[in-house]
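Before relying on records like the one below, remember that each one covers exactly one chain. Contacts with other chains, cofactors or solvent are not represented anywhere in the record.
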Amino acid sequence: MSYQAYQKAQTSAETPSQVEYRLFAQVTNALIEVKDKPVTASDTIAALDWNRRMWSVFSSDCGAKGNQLPDGLRAGIISLSIWVSKHSSLVMRGQESIESLININKTIMEGLADQAKLQAGAQADAPAPQPVNATL
């Protein structure tokens, strides 16, 4: 019960960039684990599938009506998602390395970390709310 309360507090206090960063970190750690440790093929496939599904969701969000990201950024994310899907298939067949997928995710994580810093700075620069003097 207290874990659920902690989870709710954590997600309500995080910015969207922080939530995305956390997801990328979890997925990327799964990819690193299957790269660095002897694992079964099913473990590798599960990590690759998780990564592919994450990218697919981001791609779908970028294609959705009302998405407020700049058109160029949306197109870039969709293109990366397509590349991730194709590259993941090659990794599953043993024709490519998982390292490129890890590097792409880390690059995105760097951008998300920079975005989170900007958002935090903007919040710090915002004027503090003024107390309201309510007299009856």
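The CA atoms of residues 9 and 74 lie 30 Å apart.
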